[in-house]
Amino acid sequence: MHDTAPRRPRLRAFRSASLRFSLAYGVLFALSSILFMSFIWWGTIGFLERQVETAINADARALAERWVMGGVPTLALTIEDRLEQNLDDDAIYMVIDPEGNYLAGNVSSWPAKVEYTDRWYSLPDTRAGLRGLAELHAYRLPGTAQTHTAGQLDSGYKLLVGRDMRARSILRRLLTDSLLWAWVMVTLLAVSGAMLVHRIFRRMVKTVARTTSAIAHGDLNRRMPLVGNGDEMDQVAEAINEMLDRIVRLMDGVREVSNSIAHDLRTPITRARTQLEDAALHARDADELRAAIERAVGNLDNITAVFEALLRIAQIETGARRSAFATFDLRPVLFDIADLYEAVAETHGIGLELDMDDVLPFYGDRSLIQQAVANLLDNAIKFSPEHSTVRLSAHIAPVATGRLVTPAGGAILRVEIRDEGIGMSDEDMERATERFFRAEKARNTPGSGLGLAMVRAIVHLHGGEIQLSRQQPGLVVRLLLPVASSALAEYGYDPFDDDMPDMTRTSHFSHQHDTNSDVL
Q: Which residues are in the Histidine kinase domain (predicted)?
């Protein structure tokens, strides 16, 4: 226990993601700088060595040519001339005869370690009282005795050529020191950069942690601060803020739904309880008691219907109904709905008109689309005055430029329901698709305020959008639904083909009338 306790703070420090990231950055930067500078050092030093070796070999070949041309006198004169012209005083020459006697050069004796002609020798050299290092190479002059061992000097005239490496050693030392100091500076920069990265990373993470912690403790107004330069940190902050705004809106929606449920369901529950209590206390016979029970059951059925609608909306919003998608012609579905509501409209003295294409290919859930249109027709008839007209139209059109549809969207199905009823204000239309929302004009009509919320969920499930607009008088509800290219192809319809004949806009009862739309 005594050995592990002091290590805990150190281990806890290394658990920091920002510290590990900054250390990895610093180590990577330092190692890359070491590799880069080592490459420069080896390349430069290697170039200097190759340059010296090339110069010595070229010098030896030239001297061998002079030897062939004039023998020892010519070779000795050439060496003296080169020594006189050697301003750097770094050239080394020596020529000896087969007995080892000195013939020419600026070296008094043949180095004992130089025994082969296929090797380079680095030997100490003293010039002007200064010790240095010389790069030497021995050559066997042409026409002399051959060696008994490959590369070994045996007898004959021998030539020694070299260069004093003192200046290059100084340059090498300067290069080494410079690169070392450069590596130290780069390492310091790497450490500073790692500390800066650690600070930036830690600040960003702490900002996120503080914001999320404040929200977790109930401060839903807290947001990530923005620097304003549009960099990645601002993008992360904007994404987090957008997520928080979405969470707040969802929580507000849940709160409103809860309040609406409590408000809208309290009345029927209280009414049912009152009816049952009144029947229990004052019912004079079984018929009165049965009637009270039936009224209470009706109120409870309405409550059950509200909860079923809420569950259905939640199921639609989760996308669970996409498994029921199929390709079908929407025209018969809309006519079935119109037939269903024709009698209701006639009862209220309302005319029902249809205006549809001959074929309406669509890919989606048949029953959900049927329910959405039925809800809209029901609302239109419910809020329309007597002797007015409700119009249902459905047409397919090419995708408008700039409109975003689903990847499978090849065209747009436009379904409109127009009525001449009480309409809505701009403020009411903005909130019309919220759950349990009811406009002031519709407070006294029966309903739960879930119809348009159900329609919106169904339309969004199909990748479309719902639009509400006013007309004088009345309201227009427009559904824009993307039509899959596969559905268009199955019915042989291409909205982009100019040679394709236009769809005839007619109703189910076109054989009874000359116009394209009919009153049901």
A: 260-485
